[in-house]
Amino acid sequence: MTSVQIRTLRQPPNVDESNARALAYLNETYKSLDDLEGETDLEALVEQARQKMENLDAKLAHSQSNVDAVIVRTREKATEHLHTAQELSLLRHSLADELSFLSGELVSSLSGPEEGPTLLEDLEALHRSLKELESVKGYVQVIEHALKLSEAAVQQVRTSSTVTVTAYEDLQAFVASVSTACGKVESVASQPDLHIVAFLEGVVEWTWRDMKGVLSSTLLEAAEKLKWPMKVDYASVAPEDRKAFENAFYNLLKLQTIGEKIRDTSKRIASAKEGLYPLQALVQAVALRFKFHFEGTRQTNRLDKPEWYFTHIVNESHEHRPFMESIVQALLSSTEYRTVNAWREFTLLLLPIVEHKLRRTIPALLSHPPILAHTIYQALAFDTTLRDEGFDLPGTTASPANGKDTRHWEGISEVILGKTEWFEAWVEGERKFAMDQYFEIISSSDAWLIGDDDGEEESDMRPAFRELRPTNSARRVKALVEQVTDRYSPLPHHAHRTRFLIVVQLPLLESYHARIASSLDAFETLSSTFMRAVPGALGTGDGRGDGRKLTAGVEGVQRLCKALVSAKYVAGAMEIWGEDLFFLELWAEINRRANLRSKAESIPSLPTPNGAEDEPPEGTIFEELIRHYHSLVGRAEELIVSSVSGEVESGLKPHLQGGSTQVTPAVGSAVPDDIALAQSLLGPLALLSSHLSFLRGTLPRATVTSLYRRIAGRLSTHLLQRQVLYRGRARSTLQEAQMLVAEAELWVETCRVALKEERGRVEAPWRPFLQAARLLATEGEVWTKVVDATFGMASDGEWEEVMLDTVGLCEFPREEVQGILRRRADCER
């Protein structure tokens, strides 16, 4: 604003503006010429204005000179100030450069990779290092003191004739004081944590192990004079050697007793799990021999021979048992460990050797299922052997001291079975092996041949099944399932047994059931296609004739019998298995445990478990599968009955239609000599005889009897309906009725000869047909008496007496007898 004002004031006067103002003034003052002429002081006014202008010009000139002088002075001062400002600017830049340099000198060396540390940083680093060294010096001094106390404790045990642990107690007290002091100091974030307390506690433990190791070495030196780990003949050892052994033994026991009193609770528990110190020392020598034989490159270290190292441990336990039970047990009896069973404790301490071996070898066996399975079986056999020897946890240091919680040994197999991955790998390998064997069984050329009845394999079967001659596949499947049972029955846990049952065993029985069912389905398909759709048109040489050969005749029934005996045999085996103690216990355990019940409920082949834990389980574990197999048996029997009766009925069609006029003398004592039978009847008789003879020679007597009754019952009903009840308008003459009786007798006689049974048993299914034929064949007074009694006013009791006198026992009601009698041509009722 000042510069603008200065420029405004320096501008020259505006003449035009002055003239305009003067003109305006004159125009306002002198509006006319008269005003101008009448004004007397105009000249004075003009003169006054001129003087004023001159005065103003003088002032202007004076002001102009003053202004010029001020401008000059101002420019000089401005120039002077400009030079001063430039000098100050240069000074500022130099100060900024110096400040930047000094700042760079103070920046940490971490800000640039090529710059060195500052002096201040060097001093700070040296100061920190000094403090750390002082702290480390304190730590090292603490550790040094602890190590010296540790060495002193070990040396005290090594040099003292008696077990003294005062130096060890000093070490414990020192570590406890350090732990207390460290607990009061707050952790500093910039100071690294050296874990000194944990290290010192480790020193305490190492020291105790070293002390135990010193005394163990003394015991082993004394034991070597007893020829340990060979079998010890203690009576032949020199007295001084025995004394040395006993002293070393007692020293270790005394050390363990002291340790239980002065050591930390958790450490005492861990020590108890380790076992007795003297026996631990003795086991070390056994472990060295085991390592020499089974963990090196010797021929005895073979993955496929786990029984070698299992047997080695069993032999060691058995070989040293007399020494443990006599000498060692006597040594323990005078100490506070008198309740410990020396042999069981020694055997318990041998087990970690085998456990370590298994944990190292099993991962390599997962890709070799046969060797893995063999190893597991050997482990189970090892457990069984030790249990049979009397080994268990009670009486060992692994058993609770209070004796209330009685634990039992789970077995060395639990090392494998307790790990889900290893157990599942074994189960899967067993499943594949069992299924491969199953497919090999059913695919063999003699799988469906009915075996010879030697009776040896069926000696354990029920009497009802001993006459059963099963197929080779049924026997082999039974043996395979029993083999699977033998493989998993030694498993100690029911959960593992249930898993094995569901994954390995049940699929075998289900697959065999499906195989038999598929054969029956195929038979039904062929028989329904070729026998029902086009009956009598098969066997013409085309493809359909092959189907006829597969289902017709004795060959077709033979296929059904194979399915029947196979299903019946396996069902009978399952009934026996279900009542076996092993499966009864397994089923009871499945019903009792909720997790096993849930697994069983998801398997269709198992019965529904009983949810009530306080109630005994119902049925057996194979109850559902037995029901399925029995349905196969019933289905096969029905197909046999349908096939045999259907074929015989088809063969009877020409005879019933009267297509054959040839006659032949009757065969059989029950047929009168003067009656000739149609030759068209011989074919069906021969067919029935061949079927019955085959059934009698193949199936058990009870099954044959049942099938025969059903077959004969159907044929009897068929003949009764076609030849008596529904033969149309034609009525029989007496001669035809007599021939019908002869035919009925011939049916019965044929069956009797084929079955080789008494006539009374054979005749039962044919009795309706026989009685109807005999009623029609009565003549003379007997005929009249029967007709009068049947159609007359006789009471039912009188009618039954007449029937009993004339035709024997009559199974027909009176109304049906009336219908039968009306089929005689000479019946006028």
From TrEMBL:
GO terms for biological process: endoplasmic reticulum to Golgi vesicle-mediated transport; regulation of ER to Golgi vesicle-mediated transport; retrograde vesicle-mediated transport, Golgi to endoplasmic reticulum. One of its GO terms (cellular component) is Dsl1/NZR complex. Keywords: Coiled coil. InterPro entries: EXOC6PINT-1/Sec15/Tip20_C_dom2 (IPR042044), RINT1_Tip20 (IPR007528), Tip20p_domB (IPR042042). PROSITE patterns: RINT1_TIP20 (PS51386). It comes from the Eukaryota. Gene3D superfamilies: Dsl1p vesicle tethering complex, Tip20p subunit, domain B, Dsl1p vesicle tethering complex, Tip20p subunit, domain D. Residues 39-66 form a coiled coil. This is RINT-1 family protein. The lineage of its organism: Eukaryota, Fungi, Dikarya, Basidiomycota, Agaricomycotina.
